Amino acid sequence: MLLDFIKKVSKETLEQLLKALVADGVLTASEMKCVLEKNHTRVNKASCLVDIVFERGVEDCQKVIHHVHSIDPALYTDLKTAQQALFKRLRSKLKEDGKTKDDGREEEAEEEKEEEGGAP
C-alpha cells in the first residue's frame, strides 16, 4: 500500500496532505519545507513523507490515511482496493500451502466425522 501511495499520489494531493499534516500537528512547518525542498521529484517527496510518518507510529499513520481519504477520495479507494487484493492473494497462497487456521479446523472436523461414522 505504501508503494502504491508513493507511485500514485499527485503533486497537488501531496502538497495538500503536507499542509493538512502541519495543521494537524503531525509535521512541523520546517519538516514540510524539508520534504518539499530537499526532494526534487514527486516520488521522492512522497517517499520522504512516508518515511517520516512511518517512524512516528500508528496514530500519525492513521491521520495520514484520514487526510488522504478527505483530500483525494479516488486515491484512497484505489489504495484500499489494492490492499484488499493483496490480502486476498496472501490468503489464497496460505490456503494453498495449508497454513491457514481455517484449513486445520476443517480437516479436524472432517476427521471427526469420519471417526463418528466408522464407529458402531
Automatic annotation (TrEMBL):
Give the record's GO biological process terms. Answer: regulation of apoptotic process
**Ranges where the record places region Disordered:** 97-120
| One Pfam family named in its UniProt record | CARD
InterPro entries membership? CARD, DEATH-like_dom_sf
Q: Which residues form the CARD domain?
A: 1-83
Q: Where is the composition biased (Acidic residues)?
A: 105-120
Q: Which domain of life is it from?
A: Eukaryota
Q: Which Gene3D superfamilies match?
A: Death Domain, Fas
Q: Which residues form a coiled coil?
A: none
Official protein name in the record? CARD domain-containing protein
